[in-house]
Amino acid sequence: MYIYNNLSNRKERFIPCEDNQVKMYVCGMTVQDKPHIGHMKSFLTADVMRRYLEYRGYRVKLVQNFTDVDDKIINRANQEGVPYLTVANRYIEEYYQVSDRLNIRRADIYPRATEHIPDIIALIQRLIDKGVAYEAAGDVYFAVEKHPDYGKLSNRSIADMIEGTRKDVQSNKKHPLDFALWKAAKPDEPHWDSPWGKGRPGWHIECSAMAMKYLGETFDIHGGGLDLIFPHHENERAQSEAATGKPFAHFWCEGGLLEIENTATKKVEKMSKSLNNFFAMSDILEKFEPDAVRMFLISGHYRSPLNFSEARMAEAKARLDRLRETFRNMSFILKDFDDDATLDVESSEPEVKELYEKAKAVREKFEAAMDDDFNTAQAMAVLFDVAKAANTFMASRQERFSSTDKRVLDYSRGILQDFLHVLGFSDAIFAEDTRATDITDDLIQILIEVRKTARMEKQWAIADTIRNRLEALGIALEDRPGGETRWKWK
RNA sequence: GGCGACGUACCCAAGUGGCUAAGGGAGCGGUCUGCAAAACCGCUAUUCAUCGGUUCGACUCCGAUCGUCGCCUCCA
Q1: Are residues A25 and A42 in the same domain?
Q2: What is the mean pLDDT of chain A?
Q3: Nearest nucleotide from residue A312 CA, by C1' atom
Q4: Residue A388 lies in a domain
Q5: Is the CB of A380 under 7 A from strand B?
Q6: Range of the domain at A466
Q7: Helix, strand, coil percent values for chain A (each to nearest 5)
């Protein structure tokens, strides 16, 4: 398979460092506020990559950090008058909640910066010993000019960057682009003892220390948002490779940002905490189901920006409903279908053969799409193709299905389920709605029968009242061509 | 100003140096239906921002122009 590498600016053949093992690090959140849907785009992207890699037979070790000490967390804690870890823990907890609801599989390890201070100090010391970092008044800085490769990931040269740099007031730095590995503690700040006095880690170093600790000095894939390329990932790479003399991550896979239209200026801009234009993931989940969010987030390519709006979410929901409808219709037909005879395609009718061929081709087409830098949009199109074919097939049958018909539908359903799972959709799409308890079903069946009688007597007002009242409760009735009436939650 | 990405139908969105430019949403017409809903069938890009160039041939490669976005400061 091929994955786009931001380091080389092109797609490269993906070959893991170790045979069957993929080691992956995703830059997690600085837990200063609620996770918003832009954050979750990154993590859901990583989740899809991981699931597909596993589908492909790799064992994946995924590490995703929490940066739980930084200026903004400290500020927020001061405003609230609580310890900084209270703030951090609160948002970490919320992260887990929304992540679980989105069916994002848990990473293998979620290391936290504050729990790795000794590792961080050791790494900084290593850099000082190598002569690429220096201490100045209790701070420690990485000397950018000592690292010849600096700027490669973000495609810029030190000279270019200096032009755009504002004058830095604090001048413990030897070079304006040098960045802090360790910051001397200001009064009343959280701090730890270190060889350079009391202080706390700078922003980038924790990722290097923790990635190396859990994945080794070289690993396969480094993910995160595109806005992290500079300075975060550039600095991470520089300090890591300066320390070890080895490549840090092989593939740098930063994803496109979530954008949103500014209602005042009509301009599209990235969703971020600093612009205060974000939609908390928890709020969106009040309104839209998790699978619809997933459908929305994978509707384009992960490297492209994605524009958020309620209308787009509603569209994603409609896409999801289309698939769900197909599954519902299959389920009605396959109710009590329990037959493990093999499908004899050769002697089947052309319609059966056609659906079978469509479903059978999914594996190859889906893999071709996903092997090409995780093209989820293409992959979804492949699945929609089969859903359409199944719908067409079902519509062609006038509600009478032979066991061969059922076999090919069962086969198609299995294929669709398998591949929707690979993309991380939950069983909620194809499983029966859990709100439908048996008694509910019985009660609705009674109403359906009453309505049926009314319809036979052409008492349309009664029939429609039943349907409308149920509709108001979120229950939709469908009269099928054969005279059968089905119900579903809307 | 520097670096990078992008501009495909009403909307979202994949894609390819030459075979009908995927898929979805929305709309319209039809089938089915007492009416709906859902589904199915048909229609909605002679064209891929604009202008040049390379080529037998480009939407796809190159250049310019216009537009949008991101990074250059904290940010998934």
Answers
A1: yes
A2: 92
A3: B12
A4: yes
A5: yes
A6: 438-489
A7: 50, 15, 35
Has residue A313 been placed in a domain? no
For residue A325, give the nucleotide whose C1' atom is nearest its CA: B38
Q: How many whole angstroms separate alpha carbon A485 and alpha carbon A479?
A: 4
A388/B41 CA-to-C1' distance in Å:
13
Flag residues 274-313 of A with CB < 7 Å from strand B.
274, 299-301, 304-307, 311-312
- Residue labelled with tokens 């004058």: A167
Looking at the domain assignment, is residue A459 inside a domain?
A: yes
CB of A165 within 7 Å of some strand B atom: yes
CA distances from A149 to A234, A305, A465 (A): 10, 28, 73
- Of A256, A284, A306, which one is at a domain's C-terminal end? A306
Residue A311 lies in a domain: no
Choose among A415, A416, A411, A479: nearest CA to A451: A479
Angle at A218 between CA A116 and CA A158, to 5 degrees: 85
Q: Give A109-127 pLDDT, tens digit per residue.
A: 999 999 999 999 999 999 9
Residue A349: closest CA among A395, A408, A411, A413: A408
- What is the per-residue pLDDT for A140? 96
**Strand B nucleotides where any atom sits below 7 Å of a protein CB:** 1-6, 11-15, 22-26, 32-41, 68-76
Q: Is the CB of A261 under 7 A from strand B?
A: no
- CA A8 to C1' B62, in angstroms, rounded, equals 21
Nucleotide nearest to A307 (CA to C1'): B12
H/E run at residue A189: none
**Residue in the block written with tokens 């880690």:** A201
pLDDT tens, position by position, A44-67: 999 999 999 999 999 999 999 999
Residue A32: band (very low, low, confident or very high) from pLDDT cuts 50, 70, 90: very high
Whole-number distance in Å between A214 CA and B28 C1': 58
DSSP string, A245-299: SS-SEEEEEEEPPEEEE-TTT--EEE--TTTT---BHHHHHHHS-HHHHHHHHTS
Task: Assess whether A156 and A263 both reside in one domain.
Answer: yes
Here the ipTM equals 0.95
Residues A323 and A466 in one domain: no
Q: How far apart are CA A299 and CA A378, in angstroms?
A: 9
A443 CB inside 7 Å of strand B:
no
Count of structural domains, chain A:
3
The nucleotide lying nearest A28 (C-alpha to C1') is B76
